[in-house]
Each structure stands twice: as structure tokens, then as C-alpha cells.
Amino acid sequence: MSFPFYKQFDLMDCGPTCLRMIARHYGRNFKVQTLRQYCEINREGVSLLGIYNAAKKIGFDTDAVKTSIKGLEECELPVILHWRQNHFVVLYKIKNNKFYIADPGTGHIKLNLEDFSRNWVENEDSDEGLALLLSPTPQFYENANEAGSEVRWSFLFKYFMVYRKLVIQLLFGLAAGSLLQLIAPFLTQSIVDIGINTRNLNFIYIILIAQGALIIGRISVDFIRSWILLHISIRINISILTDFIIKLMKLPMVFFDTKMTGDIMQRMNDQKKIETFLTGTALTTLFSIFNLLIFSIVIAYYNSTIFFVFLISSMLYMGWIVLFLKRRKELNYKSFEISAKNQSNVVQLIAGMQEIKLNNCEQQKRWEWEDIQASLFNINVKNLTLSQYQQGGSTLINEGKNLLIAFLSAKAVIDGDMTLGAMVAVQYIIGQLNGPIEQMLGFIQGFQDARISLERLNEIYQMEDEELPGKEWNQDLPVHKDIHINQLSFRYPGTGNLPVLKDINLHIPQGKTTAIVGMSGSGKTTILKLLLRFYKPDEGEIKIGTASLNNISYKTWRNECGVVMQDGFIFSDSIEHNIAVGESPANQEKLKHAIKIANIQDFIDGLPLGLNTKIGAEGNGISQGQLQRMLIARAVYKDPEYIFFDEATNSLDANNESVIMNNLKEFFTGRTVIIVAHRLSTVKDADNIIVLDKGSIIEQGTHQELTQLKGAYYLLVKNQLELGT
């Protein structure tokens, strides 16, 4: 029994996926999402400690060790290895100095001692590497297999059911095309056996006309089938992608914090792979299998010996191709490794040219590059040799089969067991059958790719929405809108991370301005993100009046929040649409008001198209200060009950900041405002100033009270103003 393999869904998923493979090896299925949570994966990936803790949680007795290759041979396999200092793989077998690896990024590979050592050993001066030993305990077998951890194709059927009539027409088209092809060899036989033997030219004319009609019919069927296929594939593609984006927009904010943009884009490309497989590869292969069966029956009808020769040789052909797949995978793995090293080396050469020349190390760096080129050449030689063996053997089998069938056909004609026309028909059929055999191999690879893509999509659909559909959410805010934070503690995902906030108790009164200050990393922005429900607190509670924030609808709450974050985003759209986000057409009075408060009228007037000027990635570039003013205008346009500013003016010059802060004073009246800032000018007029240090509140009061106290706040701002001694 081969070791189970799962491909990692995302760039940072190697650790949880390795654990998933080992759990499956011992008979338990776990969703990768469950293992991600146990590993406390974050945007930087997962640590060995995270995998260790996750393994403990699902019932493994585990130990992280630093050992040599000899020590590794004495360990109970499988084990998880720290690979190339930035990856995790599973070592599941050592035999005859060969190391069998399940790499979640690549697949099953077999390495010799030298290659294994180069990838696993920490450095050249040591012969040791890191390994995580795992052994199942009784608790592991008490865990139930998780439903939904395997691939489900069922949710795709609903998309096809909408177009079931077109799918039926398509299948009829495939069958019609196969039948038209089936008639062709019999017509060819009749030309030889009847037309030529009887020297009946008129009969040959009739048969040729019939063949021409069949060709036109087959082309027409192919045209119609292509149009139907295009119609189905595009609509299914759009439907799957639309549903995926809808689902994506329902997921919690924390999902996007732990996912790389490339991983999310990959999932969007996955649906294209599935659609291509289902409407392209699968249907073409279905058509080919149908042809294979029909033409095989026809060959058996003509001559059973030829049929068995074709069958055995086709199996040999497929076996020969499959025989080289494992070796090809190993070479691809090495080629990828060396190519990645080559790319990094070239980038380093170009980017570091100044340092190379200053330190006179041109020769050393060139030799390093040449060593890599030599390794690439050796890999290319091995790839070429393998391709020649594979291609030579397959060509020999295929052509040998054709020659043997030609001989058997000719012998059958001489022996009187087959007519000359039948021999020509058999040669035609053999030519038609070579294609389906090759397509079967492509179908297997396409199925594997589509299966992995489907599993990635299934994982997204199995995640819980931000607003659970079964829960009753408060659609209105309470009358009293004070914010109460009680005993709140929070730690960012990631094993070993220390708490960012500890036992925070805070009252933010309605209609007042509260400022939060502190050194970088003290937890200021984290409080804002918890209030905006990016994350859920580990402990404690946030209340709006008497209502728990957890029970208020996300849309209701965010509808009342105007936000300017440090990393605010500008869309590739007009200035008007960037300010009045989600509202079209914009309310012109509100728009003018927002522009005035954010002090960007002069900037807009200086543009040829004014408010219709396109900005963002595909439009006019704007400075960081202009971007912040645009975000402030967006928050003001929303006319919210609550205002959250996170360093909203840190990129503004002193004049702009002074004007905007004066404009905002009137706008803030009657609203609950929370400002996170370093600049004293932004926070000095706040009704209450909260001073954070290492996740705890150490001071609070007005600017006057805190400066007189001469504590932490005084030290923070003393360099910004002359506060006296």
C-alpha cells in the first residue's frame, strides 16, 4: 500500500498538509482547515512548534529532534522533516540508501543520499537536521473522521442541471459524430471490394459522394457541438466564479489576513481548470472511449487476432509511458530546485552588482553561477535521455503494432480470410484508434489537476460565513451607543506569539472623541481592528450600550462606521466613485461636504477631468498624502455614527493637517470618534486619551491632565512640543 498523498492548497500549507498525510496513513481523515487552526497558521506560514502542538491536539505522541541521517534511519517512520529551511515534507520510507519523500508541494519523490542530505541537513558544517517524530496514541483513534474532508463533485452538478437539455444535445452530437466515423471504413472497403473489383466507376462515384456527405455531416456536427460546448462552458464558468466571489465576500476578515493574494487568485483559476476538464477533456475523452469501444468491436468483427494484437500492444504502449512518470517526476523535482536556485542567483548577481564590484568578488560569484549552470546542464542531459528512451520505446511499440497488424491483414487477404477492402478498412480504423489511447493519458492527468482544484474550492465553500445564516442578528443599534470593553485579551494567530492586548477595560462614551496613543507595537491598531470585527477577542467582551457586539449584524455595524486605516485602498476608478463607494450616483451635496472637510478641492480642480479623473493602479498616480485625504473624504461622505481613524493624517504636511483637523472638529460633534495617532496635534483636543504600553492601559485622561502627570504620555510627546520642565 503506497503512502497517502495530499497536495498543499496554499503556499503556506505544507505543515498542516504533512500532518494530514500522516493522520490519513494511520486511518484518520482531517480537513486541512482544522489542522490549519490547530497549527495556528498565519501569513508567514507555520513553525515546527505549531505542527508539534497540532499533532498533540489530534492525539499524536510527538517529539521534535535534531538528528543525523543515521539517527533518522533508527526512527519510527513516517516523520515530518524541516526541508530546505523553508518547507516541510514527510519521510515515509528508507530502503537501500534511497529516501522516499511525500512533498505536499510536488508529490512522491525518491532521492539518493546526496540529494536528501543537501535538502535536509541544516548547513554544510553539520550532518544534522530537524525532524518531528509522531506516534499515534489511543486518543488519536478516538477522534472521528471528519466529514467533508474528501473531494465532492456533487456541488458541480447543479451547474450542469441548468443546461441539461444542451448537455443531452451535446451527447447526441458525440454519438452522431462517432456513428458517422463508423460508416467511413465500410465505405472505404466497398470502394475496393466492389467498385475496383467489378470495375464499376459509377458505384465508386456514389460511394465518394456518400463519403463527401459524411465528411460535411461530421464537420457540421462538430461545428454545432463546438457552439453548444462554448455556450455551456462560458455560462458554467461565470456561474461558478460568481458563486465563488459571493462566498469569498461572506468570509471573515481574518481569512484574508492569513491568505496570500496568489493563493486566492489560484483558487479563482481552479474553477477554470474544473470547467475545462468537465466541458473539454472529459467530454472529448468520453467521445474517444465511445469510438474506442465501437471501433474495437469492428476490428474484432473483421479479425479477432488483429484485435488482440491491438489490445495487447496498446496496453504495452500505455504501460511504457506510465513506467517513466515516476522517474520524470524526480527529475522535474531536481530541475525545479536547481532552476529556482539559478533564478535567485541571477537576481542576486544583478541586484548586488555594486557590492560585488566594491568587494572585488566577481570571479567567486561567476564561479558560483557557473556551478549552477553545470548542474542545470546535467539535469537537462538526464531529461533528454529519459525522453529519448520514452519516445523511442513508445514509437517502437506503436510502429511495431502497425507493422504486425499490416502483416496479419495482408496474410489474411492472401489466405482468403479477409478482402482487400477489409484490409484497407482495418488500417483506417487502427489510425483512428491511436488518438483515443493518447487522450486517455491526458485525461488521467487532467482528472488529477481537476480533483486538486475541486478540493481547494470545496475547502472555501466549507468555511463558515462571517454572518452565520441560522443566527438571529440585531439589525439595529441600541439607543445608548457607548462602547464598553471588558477584560479583553487578544493574541494574533501563530504558535508562540505573545498576547497583544491583556485584560483591557475601557469605556468609550457616545458622542465623545477618544484618542489611543503608545509606542509602536503597543496594541493601538489591534483595538481598532477588534472594534471593527476583523478578529474575535480570545477573552473578554465588547458591548455597544447593553448589546454584545457579537450579536449585532456585521453589515449593520459597519454601516455606522467611517474608517480610515493605515493601509486604506484606492480603487482603479474615478475620484467621485472612490469617495462615494457603494453609492451610485453620488449625492452631490454630501460629496461637496466630504471634499471640503478633507481639503482636496484644489487637488481635484487641478485635474483636467475633475471628479471624473481615474485614479488608482490603472489611473493617475496620487501621493500618500492625497490618498489619505481621499480616505478621509470617503469616511466623511458615509456620514456615520462612529469614526475610526488609524494614523489618518501621518502623511499630511503641517498646513493640510491643521486645516483638515479644524474642519473635522465640527464634523466630529455628536459622533463617537476613536483616533489612533502618534502626532500630538491630532490627539491633544480629544476628550479622553488612552496610553497603551505592551498591550495594557497605563494612563488615561485629557491632554492637560496627562502632561501634568509627567508619566508615559509626557515622555511620548515631549519632543513634539516644548512642555517646559
Automatic annotation (TrEMBL):
Keywords from the named record: ATP-binding, Cell membrane, Hydrolase, Membrane, Nucleotide-binding, Transmembrane, Transmembrane helix, Transport
Membrane topology label: Multi-pass membrane protein
Q: Name one GO cellular component term.
A: plasma membrane
* Gene Ontology terms: biological process: proteolysis
Extract the signal peptide range.
Answer: none
Q: What is its main location?
A: membrane
Chain ranges passing through the membrane: 166-188, 200-221, 227-246, 277-300, 306-325
A Pfam family annotated for this UniProt entry: Peptidase_C39
SUPFAM superfamilies given for it? ABC transporter transmembrane region (SSF90123), P-loop containing nucleoside triphosphate hydrolases (SSF52540)
The protein's name is: ATP-binding cassette subfamily B protein
Organism annotation: Pedobacter cryoconitis
